[in-house]
Amino acid sequence: MTAQTQFSGGFQNAPVQAAHAFRAAMTVMAQPGEIRDLRGAQPPKPLSIAAGTLLLTLCDPETKVHLAGEFNTDGVREWLTFHTGAPISQAAVADFAVGSWAELSPLGSFRIGTAEYPDRSATLIVECDALQQAGAILSGPGIKDTARLSLPDAPALQANAALYPLGCDFFFTCGDRVAALPRSTQISVEA
Amino acid sequence: MYVAVKGGETAIENAHAWLAEERRGATDIDELSIAQIREQLGLAVNRVMAEGSLYDPDLAALAIKQSRGDLIEAIFLIRAYRTTLPRFGYSKPVKTDEMACDRRISATFKDAPGGQVLGPTFDYTHRLLDFKLAAEGEVPAAPTAQPRTEATPHITEFLKGEDIIQDEPASDTTPGDLTREPMEFPSNRPLRLQSLTRGDEGFVLGMAYSTQRGYARNHAFVGELRIGKVAVEMDIPELGFAIDIGEIELTECETVNQFKGSKTEPPQFTRGYGLVFGQSERKSIAMALVDRALRWEELGEDNLGAPAQDEEFVLSHADNIQATGFLEHIKLPHYVDFQSELELVRKLRREAEERMQPKEAAE
Amino acid sequence: MNEYNFAYLDEQTKRMIRRAILKALAVPGYQVPFASREMPMPYGWGTGGVQVSAATLTPEDTFKVIDQGADDTTNAVSIRKFFENTAGVKTTEETEKATVIQTRHRTPEAKLRKDQIIVYQVPIPEPLRFLEPRETETRKMHSLEEYGLMHVKLYEDISQHGAISTAYAYPVKVSDRYVMDPSPIPKFDNPKLEMDAIQLFGAGREQRIYAVPPHTKVVSLDFEDYPFEATKADHPCDLCGAEDSYLDEVIMDDAGNRMFVCSDTDYCRSRREAGHVGRLAEENAA
Known about the structure:
The complex is a heterotrimer of chains A (191), B (363) and C (286). Chain A is 26% helix and 19% strand. Chain A is built from five helices and nine strands; from the N terminus they run H-E-H-E-H-E-H-E-E-E-H-E-E-E. Chain B has two domains: 9-82, no CATH class; 96-119 and 151-169 and 178-324, no CATH class. The two termini of chain B are 47 Å apart. The mean pLDDT of chain B is 91. Chain C is built from seven helices and twelve strands. The model of chain C has no long low-confidence stretch (mean pLDDT 93). The interface between B and C is large, with 52 and 67 residues.
């Protein structure tokens, strides 16, 4: 494979690849606990394929993106700017943020929307080492009875859900896999 | 017996074919060319450009031809086309004080630098049908004069010198864009002006007229009305400076409004502003009046409850493409909804009759 | 129409709509403002639904469009044709085979599956609009979860007419939080709003998108002593004999004789194909 540059690794056929990627993203956001394949982009490290594909699908000059910690590299910035034109921003004003859970924490720095416009909240793309339908028990909209998902930090996410209808929404990415957790999901952990 | 209505597709195709034939009209009459419409129905073209929010006289003329002269339909065609166009960049604000004026009048000063220029106006024509035009429309050339080459300062600048008119400080803040962001209330003046300039001429006219008749009267004088061409400049990042990319015709109206002062503002003149593509005089004056009426809050005036003061009301109903679509949609099938109402009314009647009956029996 | 992008809309517009859809799914029943674009069809004729469908469709999808429950109504035909031309997707009239269904005024009779998406065309997304015309006010009411006005309206109905006089676009409360307009579906369809498929709602002119994820609690507003009733014409379908489907009433002759037929044309067709026979079906075949 040739060296990664800011120009490479975009969608080859944006209308179709973005459509597929969005369907995966929508499916997991509508059904918390579901895991889907998410491919299309070949982003520079440390971005995963799934996170890179999400960024290309959802970001453009109208969205501010926060790159947390080790994701804030020249390579990622240049790649993102070239392919999406999205301005890189601080956490406090970001529409989207990418990073590991540790780097994105604490969640308090992100927008949670306002009472009149709860949609004006950040969507966090959390890069994970593993992604499984195991662990925390999820219930709420999109879930028949209950579902399970490996969450990085159940108490922090419970606190986010308690803000409903305000709060952040999450994608969890691992390699070319994606799951999601909207603020509407109730989380419990087995004792 | 009963056969369900089928064949929607064929019906639609046939309707389109018939429509095309009607549009063409009798084939022994010459077909209109785009150039004829552009040159001879210029004010219709201007209205389509203004309310379509796209400055392209040829496309506007095409839309008028395609829509059989239904200007709202033509505006719709232009809007639908416009929305598919990529954005290459943003022009710099046009400098209307450097406008090459075809017409420039002030109702507030008998004369001022730049003078009063009547230009090609209907104002003093006697509205008598000119039957000669029915035969042929060839006209002798109009007299010409040397055009002014220097800039024509705005009338309001002279009032500003005296500090007797509300200042409108320049701002480099990027205004919102109502075609790219959902409308949100309360709005702000740039968005209001965008909405008014592309708003339906009849609606804006009616709103403006209502202020004149006392629904939030704002004592407007036409400080200045000017029509002419201005250069459009755009910064080219690769070049590092701005270049002229063309010129457009605009109508600008600035009203000077009497203002007795309020809790927050001293007595002074205030302004309303109208700026519209092409020669669109009625529209720009109406726009300025409505703009002024909508500024009651920033000037600390009372809300009189007049329709033209109500930003949400004016902005939500000014767009004729939204209005006509929703109005006309009621001719689409609604039999599911109607059926549910039918059932409900029958049920309510049944119950009402049942309530009546025992009473009658007892009597 | 090859000069246009896949599914007509440019990619930036689709991204903007997609972001709105994701937020709508995250806050079920809340109306997300979006910068609706001018479409090549009139506002009020499904521009919101069309934009949501355009942002949702992939080339592999099979698309179904219904209006009043029927695939062959003119506006349904027109929208179906639009996507055949601009997205090149397969289309179908069979609910079963569709992956994305755009609808106006009905929810199909057949139970929708988890892998299906239904897109509703919405004229007035604000359930409180006819009680309070101002957006600034209704937005405040939603933020405060202040829905007293709606209950007062429904209660006044009862005191005046002895029943709630809303027959379609019957308001619902979604996931115990937002009161939502389910679009002008007959209230008969309200119980179906708790379903396995993803439900997306698009209002183009009013610039709003909202959603109900699968398995989301959707409750039609009512009172303990006047419980919600999903009513329909008290007849079986005269063509397929179905007793559980929503019916259209058709005037058959100058004497005003009526017949009742399924509004969901695909449901009726599939039942007749399976051998179900209604009161007037024999004559019809003859």
